[in-house]
Sequence to fold (650 residues):
Amino acid sequence: MKPKTPSKLERILAAGHLAVTSECGPPRGSDGKAIAKKATMIRNHVDAINVTDNQTSVTRMCSLAACIRLKLMGLEPVLQMVTRDRNRIALQSDILGAASFDIYNILCLSGDHQVFGDNPKGQNVFDLDSMQLIQTARFMRDEAKFLGGDDIERPPRMFVGAAANPFADPFEIRVPRLAKKVAAGAEFIQTQCIYNVERFKEWMKGVVDRGLHNKVYILAGVTPFKSAGMAKYMKNRVPGMDVPDALVKRMSGVPKEKQPEEGLKICVETIEQVKEIEGVSGFHIMAIEWEEKVPEIVERAGLYPRPQLDN
Amino acid sequence: MRLQYSSSIKIIRLPCTGKVDLLHILRAFEKGIDGLYVVGCLEGECHYKSGNLRAKKRVAQAKEILEKVGIGGDRVEMFNLSSSEAPRFVQAAEEMAARVKNLGPNPLRKAFKKMAA
Amino acid sequence: MIVADKKPIEEIIEEIRDYERILVAGCNECVTVCEAGGKKEVAVLASALRMYFMNQGKDVQIDEVTLERQCDHEYLEEIRDRVGGYDAILSLACGVGVQFMAEKYFSKPVLPGVNTAFMGGAEERGVWSERCQGCGQCILARTAGICPISRCAKRLLNGPCGGSTKGKCEISKDVDCAWQLIIDRLKELDRLDDYEQVMPIKDWSTERAGGPRKIIREDIRL
Fold:
């Protein structure tokens, strides 16, 4: 697939490399240096950095502002955009705002319900859903028009991505759902973090059977366990997460001070196993509140150094 | 068995406690009664299947309302027993009589007196 | 039907505290069916309020009436002769009825006695749930008879989201995932292939967002 945008992420994928992305959460305040620090820690070990958008409905500095800061630092941001908080006017407007700083990557999401965050009494918007946001981003780029039909001056050139969760219910539509996102225009996918490699393999088989891996780049999500407590929490309290008992046992079977290392081991092993699966184009490392370990994970998984593109 | 119980209690007989309406209870207190209790069959043994369960819910509603309007939720109560349990019947009677005596007269009686004056 | 829930009596007492002659007006339709504002509920509330005010030593007159419907001028007319005798009307009708009452008896304070909640139906005795949001452009033909706008917490037209777990919504185990229901039904109707059609961006102009709505039927106006 030939790259359609100047996105560094797209070009690395198009060149046939296994891409590596990670994420940074903006601070709960206006200190831009906080996110600059996180990004600097990982900049040489990833091809692009996702900036989350009020994740879990907890109010934070907006993704757009943080992405602009990263772009000005010479990094490659991925603007995560949820449809929970903005209507179609604001969504298109923010896409243009990002494009005005030559941000070339967008991840289109619906967003966690506001009941999980710090404003459960607030309204939600959902003027569009994630599928329709994908369509919108593609429309703005490829037709150079607003949804309303008017022409866009200097249209955005976004590499459009979406999320996929092979572990959510119902399983039988998880591959059709990917097909739907591809039909809507998704060009890359970042999956929910993988703990159940067998189930992920099953999903990928369905994906490959339908030839979807040739139409969209799939980046497999991974998250290292910091502790046995975290493993249990993710197993029991996070919707759409599949953590096999064996992994929880493995984490609990190790003394507390050795658990972080065990978590990292599991993460690297997962990457090694997933590397072998047909159709996987890269990895999305979500080291929540543990960003400093991303470089180590990338190196231990044999994904360092990152490919350099001749500009 | 000819057991004795308090003479301050007036009995109203019904074919089933399911026939007790929330309004019967409330209007009785509106008129100034001091206490009311509903005696029904043991749960699971209602002759009409679930009449006593409905009564239970209505008594609970009455308690809440009477408490909120300042009359006192303890003035109304539900008891379950089988028709052969005469001693239990007396026990319930004595319990309610003592409880209501302790609570004193319905506070509305003061209001009636004032309005009559 | 319109489903409403009783207002806490403390709130109602607060609403009517300044008045001495109150007419409690019920409605014989929706609020009767969901046992929030019918003749029985009017009687119970009136009795409770009388006891409250008597206990406070206040002489408050509380009368009861239940109209066939409060969303109809004809039925509201029935109390025109009585209304003059009251300081306020406490309406146990849904929000529509309360407002029609207030419009009709313009100089009489009209207060709500129930919290109007949603358009829905009874799943079983004592349990009512939402089914319709009145979006104005019904898409039930394309979603196997299950509405994603009123039953999906995110009103996703291309769901489910990644939070759907064992048929339940991420916000609560007590809420069904609308998209699980839709998929189950599509399977039952042998139309699971329809799932892959991308539902286009919705025109929300006929929904609340477009402004207060009105339907005019010239074919039946006189």
